[in-house]
From TrEMBL:
SUPFAM superfamilies per record: Glycoside hydrolase/deacetylase, Nucleotide-diphospho-sugar transferases
Location of the NodB homology domain: 85-272
GO biological process, one term: carbohydrate metabolic process
Pfam family, one: Polysacc_deac_1
Keywords: Glycosyltransferase, Membrane, Transferase, Transmembrane, Transmembrane helix
Membrane spanning stretches: 12-34, 596-624, 630-650, 671-691
Family per record: Belongs to the glycosyltransferase 2 family.
Top-level division of the source organism's lineage: Bacteria
GO MF entry, a single one: hydrolase activity, acting on carbon-nitrogen (but not peptide) bonds
Designated name of the protein: Cellulose synthase/poly-beta-1,6-N-acetylglucosamine synthase-like glycosyltransferase/peptidoglycan/xylan/chitin deacetylase (PgdA/CDA1 family)
Length: 706
């Protein structure tokens, strides 16, 4: 067998993609904040549903007993009323895509002009309707940006509401206005001290406040006849009538208006805009080009935020569906796999085994690994291939003087080359490959090779468990191994599409390895690449859960990041290398269409989508119903806990570590997301990585040789 040449790819620092990702996150946060502010912070109650409270001692008598149009300037506050027998019909809360056009059609039919107090967010959503209001001679005015209660709003929020309303109006219609109706306001006599302070502050911003003299109370939906009765003037005095063209079903408003207009016209009442009714100059004027441009920018920002939220909503559904699908699929498969316990692949396999241990600076744990292997209850030879270690690994193994253990020294060339070197030196047909930090149970080798009793089996995956479980990081990796890796392997075994025999504990048929040319070094996940090559060559790869080996997991976040980054990036490399299996027939096609699809959906796409769940959780806690959001999040955690208890039961593990699972959602899960994101960015950028050796701590112990 030819030995592949080791490749040394230059390690390129990857910083650009983190800058891009940070910028994307900032933009996403901005869009969500904008969307949450405009859609979920204010305006939950209709006009008239929020009553003013408190004293009214500071409100001038001339205002409470005066007209509905108020000028609260620095001089003497003034107010004016509509001319006698003149009615200024005003519509709040629009424009609405259903009801505003119908009301405009009705007003045009009766040749009546009205005043529309529009909400900025509604104008941004339907700028064409705002333009139609202006084009048809109606007066357009401000009703705040988000239907916020300006009386209770802080100063900065009040300024924001007014400024954004004007910008959106300028962007949509090209005009500005000086008329304002504060949401939740009513008649002048209902003003309280806090209302008056707000009115004075809005006057400083250049606004005249328009209240009402008559409320149709159509927001209550009392019935068409009652809306008409509420809207009929009680005298010949002029009126400012409050109605609504948005905020829900306005059928009663429309029907009442269709009867009210001809009835009042027949009685000699005239209809006018607010400015015309009180004899003031037109309150609208052309906006500057700068304000129009800024207004259009705000409108487009709001539209983009709506689109972003819609996309995130669909992604949330996709992530939820994939999570539930994965849970159901793995649990059902694990249950069926458990029923196969005791299944015989053929007669017992008793032939000796060659165990290959590739080692590079493994002095911390190599002795425990070797002693656990020679303590096996099955005949074997151990071949330690020292890949140019600088910490005396080879000398340490030789000093042990354990019979049946050979050491082969070679210049540093990488793990795949070391394994191929060991394969050339092996004397037996069955090969077990072991990492230098792995400790085997005494019966692990014997149980691991039993599936080779079936001639179609080319490789066997053992059950790798985390040995160093102390601390949160160790427990979280232990949970991941049991719930994630081992549940998946049961499913892969059942579906005959195993993508990875782990380097920690795996067995191979020598004939199968030679037929595919040994191990390749073109990916960083040589175990995944090798397994996929065997599947494509028609060999069956199975999982033997009773063959238990203990591996040393990373003990620091940095070491964990480097390990998982290499795993994930290497897996992506292997998936791309073996993508042709998707269109092959036989076992290769089964692996491609089942195994690669599963990996793409649940180990690539789902981790990329999973942050959407966290983003929405934060969004919901701030802008939506926190109880509902926490309930949904709790449901996901409960689902994982149930999966965890079942997986731990299948593996014969005590469920104690599962108490840390909810905490895992806040740190460990996000770390794994970032690993996948960086791996995908690295793959798309075409950057090559070199082998990154994990730190060894020598925390595992082995049985004494008998």
């Amino acid at each position: 067998m030819s030995r592949p040449v080791a490749r040394r790819a230059k390690q390129v620092p990857l910083r650009t993609h983190w800058i891009v990702l940070t910028m994307l996150l900032v933009c996403l946060a901005s869009m969500l904040l904008l969307n949450g502010y405009t859609h979920h912070m204010f305006g939950a109650e209709p006009d008239g549903a929020v009553a003013s409270t408190g004293g009214a001692g500071s409100v001038p008598r001339s205002i409470t007993a005066g007209g509905p149009v108020i000028d609260a300037g620095n001089g003497t506050p003034r107010s004016v009323s509509p001319k006698p027998r003149t009615i200024a019909i005003t519509f709040d809360d629009g424009p609405d895509p259903v009801w505003t056009p119908k009301i405009l059609d009705l007003l045009r039919e009766h040749q009546v002009h009205a005043t529309f107090f529009v909400v900025g967010t509604a104008v941004a959503a339907h700028p064409d309707l705002a333009r139609r209001i202006v084009a048809e001679g109606h007066q357009i005015a401000v009703h705040s940006f988000t239907h916020a209660n300006l009386t209770t709003a802080t100063g900065w929020r009040r300024d924001l509401e007014l400024r954004q309303s004007q910008l959106i109006l300028a962007g949509a219609t090209g005009v500005r206005t000086t008329l304002l109706r504060p949401p939740y306001s009513s008649e002048p006599e209902a003003l309280r001290d806090r209302d008056w302070e707000s009115i004075k502050q809005t006057r400083e911003a250049g606004y005249l406040t328009v209240l009402t003299t008559q409320d149709s109370e159509d927001w209550r939906k009392p019935g068409t006849d009652q809306v008409i009765a509420n809207s009929m003037p009680r005298s010949q005095a002029g009126q400012v009538l409050l109605m609504h063209d948005a905020g829900g079903d306005r059928t009663q408003t429309l029907e009442a208006l269709s009867k009210l207009l001809p009835r009042l016209q027949a009685r000699g009442f005239k209809f006018a805009t607010v400015s015309d009714a009180v004899g003031l100059p037109d309150a609208t004027n052309s906006a500057s080009l700068l304000d129009r441009g800024r207004g259009l920018a705000v409108i487009w920002a709001m539209r983009i935020s709506d689109a972003v939220l819609a996309v995130l909503g669909w992604l949330l559904y996709a992530a939820g569906a994939l999570s539930v699908l994965r849970a159901i699929t793995t649990v059902v498969a694990a249950r069926r796999h458990a029923r196969m316990r005791g299944w015989s692949y053929g007669p017992p396999v008793t032939e000796p085994v060659s165990v290959i241990v590739p080692a590079y600076n493994e002095s911390a744990g190599i002795e425990a690994a070797i002693r656990s292997l020679v303590a096996s209850d099955h005949p074997l030879e151990v071949i330690v291939v020292d890949d140019g270690s600088t910490d005396g690994t080879a000398d340490l193994v030789e000093s042990l003087r354990i019979p049946g253990v050979r050491v082969i020294r070679q210049a540093n060339a990488g793990k795949p080359v070391a394994l191929n070197t060991g394969l050339q030196a092996a004397r037996f047909e069955l090969i077990v490959m072991v990492d230098g930090d792995t400790v085997f149970e005494p019966d692990a080798v014997r149980k691991l090779i039993q599936p080779f009793g079936h001639p179609a089996v080319g490789a066997v995956s053992g059950n790798a468990k985390v040995g160093n479980r102390r601390g949160l990081l160790g427990r979280w990796q232990h949970i991941e191994y049991v719930i994630g890796f081992n549940l998946d392997r049961r499913l892969f075994d059942l579906a005959e599409c195993m993508p990875t025999v782990p380097g920690a504990v795996g067995a191979f048929r020598r004939t199968a390895l030679e037929r595919i040319g040994g191990l390749s070094d073109v990916t960083l996940a040589e175990d995944t690449d090798l397994t996929m090559a065997l599947c494509r060559d028609g060999w069956r790869v199975v999982y033997e859960e009773s063959a238990v080996a203990w591996t040393e997991a990373p003990a620091s976040v940095g070491a964990l990041w480097r390990q998982r980054y290499r795993w994930c990036y290497g897996t992506l490399q292997a998936m791309w290398k073996h993508r042709g299996a998707m269109v092959q027939g036989g076992r290769a096609g089964k692996f491609g269409r089942r195994g690669l699809t599963y990996l793409m959906l649940f180990q690539v796409l789902l981790p990329l989508l999973a942050p959407v769940v966290d983003v929405f959780a934060l969004y919901g806690l701030v802008f939506l119903d926190p109880v509902r959001v926490l309930s949904v999040w709790g449901g996901f955690v409960l689902l994982q806990l149930l999966m965890g208890f079942y997986a731990f039961w299948l593996d014969g593990e005590r469920p104690g570590p599962l108490w840390t699972l909810p905490l895992q959602q806040f740190v460990y899960r996000q770390l794994m997301y970032l690993v996948v994101i960086q791996s995908v960015f690295t793959a798309l950028a075409g950057t090559k990585l070199r082998w990154q050796r994990m730190e060894r701590y020598g925390s595992l112990q082995a049985p004494v040789v008998r």
